[in-house]
Amino acid sequence: SPMHLFLFSMVVVVYTLAMAGNTAMVLLIWADARLHTPMYFLLSQLSFLDIFFTSVTVPKMIAGFLFGWTSISFVGCGAQMFFFMFLGAAECLLLALMAYDRYVAICNPLRYPSLMSHQTCLLMVAASWLGGSINASVQTALTLQFPYCGSRKIAHFFCEVPSLLRLACADTAAYEQVLFVTGVVVLLLPIAFITTSYALILAAVLGMHSVEGRQKALATCSSHLTVVNLFYGPLVYTYMLPASYHSPGQDDVVSIFYTVLTPMLNPVIYSLRNKEVTGAMKKVIGKCRVGRTA
């Protein structure tokens, strides 16, 4: 049908742009020595996570559109859910740590090299991956231990905890409370950390005498805040609001934001107002043109 074709085309285009944009960001930061700083190292890790995060769900969705492969094995469903929860939680934690990086850079610039050493950055990334893996292991194990009888048709385009719990043939109230607690740890605590960091940053920026320094700080922070809102907002709706607030149709629309749209928009948001990234891109494009003319 025309609608089927339109949706398929949109998913393919957005996924392709997300993969291309994030891959380009990783390669650009790796190739340009001027971008070998803690902020851009963390940004490259965010792009790296986005590449895998969107690839957990979208290729299966595309295969479903093309070949009608709408079924998935129980093991496959569990694997998809694990990696989705793992990468999603890791990204939540990494975004919070990126706010700390901005706080140190703006509020404590003299100690920035020592506080944000390369070893510290590696530990921050490792902590986000470890936190994501623990979250995913707990959530996946608890979700799959329920009996699933009757209809096994998931009213969603991938295996996500809320959609699976609707099919469980047992009382899930206790587990939903556990899910809420993990949501507080993975979502609300990082949001509180980010909010506190940016409140301190705002106070420091308002005290700056240099207009140029103030504009540069606000441009960098606004990019990160935009990404935070796009990613955390839909996740809070999905995992923190009671089941009575949800419907399968609404969940499908909301999940599109954090599975496809946000990974596509992240490289664009971070590069639009960033002179260092745009400068590095122009440098690479210039080299390509020189290579062709030679």
UniProtKB/TrEMBL annotation:
<keyword id="KW-0297">G-protein coupled receptor</keyword>
<comment type="function">
    <text>Putative odorant or sperm cell receptor.</text>
</comment>
<dbReference type="GO" id="GO:0050911">
    <property type="term" value="P:detection of chemical stimulus involved in sensory perception of smell"/>
</dbReference>
<comment type="similarity">
    <text>Belongs to the G-protein coupled receptor 1 family.</text>
</comment>
<keyword id="KW-1003">Cell membrane</keyword>
<dbReference type="GO" id="GO:0004984">
    <property type="term" value="F:olfactory receptor activity"/>
</dbReference>
<keyword id="KW-1133">Transmembrane helix</keyword>
<protein>
    <recommendedName>
        <fullName>Olfactory receptor</fullName>
    </recommendedName>
</protein>
<dbReference type="InterPro" id="IPR000725">
    <property type="entry name" value="Olfact_rcpt"/>
</dbReference>
<feature type="transmembrane region" description="Helical">
    <location>
        <begin position="217"/>
        <end position="241"/>
    </location>
</feature>
<keyword id="KW-0716">Sensory transduction</keyword>
<dbReference type="Pfam" id="PF13853">
    <property type="entry name" value="7tm_4"/>
</dbReference>
<feature type="transmembrane region" description="Helical">
    <location>
        <begin position="81"/>
        <end position="100"/>
    </location>
</feature>
<keyword id="KW-0807">Transducer</keyword>
<feature type="transmembrane region" description="Helical">
    <location>
        <begin position="51"/>
        <end position="75"/>
    </location>
</feature>
<feature type="transmembrane region" description="Helical">
    <location>
        <begin position="121"/>
        <end position="138"/>
    </location>
</feature>
<feature type="transmembrane region" description="Helical">
    <location>
        <begin position="6"/>
        <end position="30"/>
    </location>
</feature>
<dbReference type="InterPro" id="IPR000276">
    <property type="entry name" value="GPCR_Rhodpsn"/>
</dbReference>
<feature type="transmembrane region" description="Helical">
    <location>
        <begin position="253"/>
        <end position="272"/>
    </location>
</feature>
<keyword id="KW-0472">Membrane</keyword>
<dbReference type="InterPro" id="IPR017452">
    <property type="entry name" value="GPCR_Rhodpsn_7TM"/>
</dbReference>
<keyword id="KW-0552">Olfaction</keyword>
<keyword id="KW-0812">Transmembrane</keyword>
<dbReference type="GO" id="GO:0005886">
    <property type="term" value="C:plasma membrane"/>
</dbReference>
<dbReference type="GO" id="GO:0004930">
    <property type="term" value="F:G protein-coupled receptor activity"/>
</dbReference>
<keyword id="KW-0675">Receptor</keyword>
<feature type="transmembrane region" description="Helical">
    <location>
        <begin position="180"/>
        <end position="205"/>
    </location>
</feature>
